[in-house]
Specification:
The protein has helices at 2-5, 7-29, 35-43, 49-73, 105-115, 121-127, 168-186, 206-223, 225-228, 243-268, 274-308, 336-370, 375-410, 424-483; strands at 77-81, 128-131, 152-157, 317-322, 328-333, 415-419. It has 485 residues and is α+β, with helices and mostly antiparallel strands.
């Protein structure tokens, strides 16, 4: 196939040689080209028109077939990045996109390994080129508004790769597959957080199980807004779920299922080690009480500081301001006492939450101390833990399916790959123009042929006459030298 790819270059070299011959002949005989004689020369083509037409048709079919075959055998591959962040020069995980990664050594080594190619990654890199439609544009990097980011990249594999017994299109297919896998693994949204692990539940206190499962559930809940903010109305075709409905399921799991489980454990005072758990709650309350005292001390300091402010200083201040529409208004601004008030409120809220945690720990410790549950109750709690685990695993799987459906439908797998099909009309037009130049060169040479032949005959006769005259002169000179004494 590589022999076919060199047909057009060979024809182009032949065309250049024909025009060089034509130009040489024209300048050689231009002084001897009478208008009527040139017309006679054109008239001499009458017998050669069929020959020129056949030759032109042969050149047209050869160049057209060679161009189409070459582009079918070694097409350009278009790689389109069709996710939202691509227009900002970013990967889906909001890291910076770098087009050089497409033809990086790491990617090409995987291409060579997967395809079992008999070519090194370094040599393969020399046969691959990447370009964009913006390469030809002169971008003024000093003006941010003129900066453009391409999301389409053309990749071309040279026909020389066939010398290593591999098809150029095969190389491009391997490159697309390898790069897509690398892109998904390193730059797509990372859903590894959906891979839940419950190894730590083994031997865990019953009340701690609730906190652990709640933490795992919040992993799922915090992962969904990444997609929900991008497309809140997206609905999966398989189950009709939306990100909002899936988030509501997780909320119900946390606020209903886990709360019911906690109430059941507290009601029956379940614990794997009663003494250890009660000691732990006492220690936790001491730490919480210390934090509460710090918050209350900070609260008191700020309240005292506020009371030290003069009433005149605590009045609000109006500052003349313009809004985004360039309209004038008086903006109320905060003074120092306002910031102290906000901080005092935050410390008081924090202390209140700490008190609630302390009361919860005290109640749990008391419940565990006064109840002695039967083995049936413990078995029931263990079964309930398994049910909660399975339900959370099911929610994680639903999240994964929903996100995968969104990526497939809305982002179409992040990357679209297609091969440029040769334009029959375009290739035919180029072949026709090439043929016209070829026929024109042949016709010009045919027209000038008789004049060039006559010119060469005149030159030959002139050389013969000059040679005869020189020979005669030489003979006469020799005769005079013999006659002289």
């Amino acid at each position: 196939m590589i022999l076919i790819s060199v047909i057009v270059p060979v024809l182009t070299v032949c065309l250049i040689l024909l025009y060089l011959i034509l130009i040489r002949r024209f300048f050689r005989v231009k002084s001897k080209l009478p208008v009527l004689g040139l017309r006679d020369g054109i008239g001499c083509l009458t017998g050669k028109r069929r020959w020129l037409a056949v030759l032109g048709l042969l050149v047209f079919l050869t160049s057209f077939g060679a161009q189409v075959s070459t582009k079918l055998w070694s097409p350009n591959m278009l790689m389109v990045f069709n996710y939202e962040e691509a227009a900002r020069g970013q990967n889906p995980n909001v890291t910076r996109f770098n087009e050089s990664n497409i033809l990086s050594d790491q990617i090409l080594e995987k291409v060579v390994s997967r395809g079992g190619l008999s070519i090194s990654a370094e040599h393969l890199a020399e046969l691959l080129t990447i370009s964009t439609r913006l390469d030809a544009e002169k971008l003024d990097v000093t003006q941010e508004s003129d900066l453009k980011i391409s999301t389409e990249y053309w990749i071309q594999c040279s026909e020389k790769v066939s010398l290593y017994h591999v098809n150029p299109k095969t190389v491009l297919n391997l490159l697309a597959d390898v790069y897509w896998e690398d892109f998904i693994q390193n730059y797509a949204e990372n859903d590894s957080i959906l891979d839940l692990s419950f190894d730590e539940l083994e031997g865990m206190e019953y009340l701690d199980v609730k906190d652990y499962l709640q933490m795992q559930a919040y992993k799922l809940k915090n992962y969904l807004p990444v997609y929900s903010s991008a497309s809140s109305s997206f609905r999966a075709a398989a189950n009709g779920e939306t990100f909002a409905s899936l988030s509501q399921k997780i909320d119900n799991y946390i606020k209903i299922e886990l709360e019911r489980y906690e109430a059941f454990v507290l009601e029956n005072g379940l614990s794997r080690d009663k003494t250890t758990y009660q000691s732990r709650m006492q220690y936790a309350n001491r730490l919480l009480d210390t934090s509460r005292k710090k918050d209350m001390a900070s609260y008191d300091v700020r309240i005292e500081t506020i009371n030290m402010y003069n009433a005149f200083m605590t009045r609000f201040v109006l500052i003349p301001t313009y809004d985004t529409n360039k309209e004038f208004y008086m903006s109320k601004t905060k003074v120092g006492v306002d910031y102290f008030a906000d901080e005092a409120k935050e410390h008081l809220e924090s202390a209140t939450k700490l008190v609630e945690e302390m009361e919860h720990n005290t109640y749990a410790s008391a419940q565990i101390g006064k109840h002695q549950a039967s083995s049936n109750i413990y078995d029931q709690a263990d079964r309930r833990i398994e049910e909660l685990k399975n339900e959370l695993i099911n929610l994680a799987e639903q999240c994964r399916e929903q996100c995968s459906a969104y990526v497939k439908e809305k982002r179409d797998g992040y990357i679209q790959v297609s091969f440029a099909a040769p334009s029959v009309a375009g290739e035919a037009a180029r072949a026709l123009v090439f043929t016209l130049f070829f026929v024109a060169a042949l016709g010009g040479n045919a027209i000038l042929a008789p004049f060039y032949k006559a010119c060469r005959q005149d030159i030959s006769r002139a050389r013969a006459v000059k040679k005869a005259k020189t020979k005669t002169k030489t003979k006469k000179k020799a005769d005079r030298e013999e006659v002289a004494p």
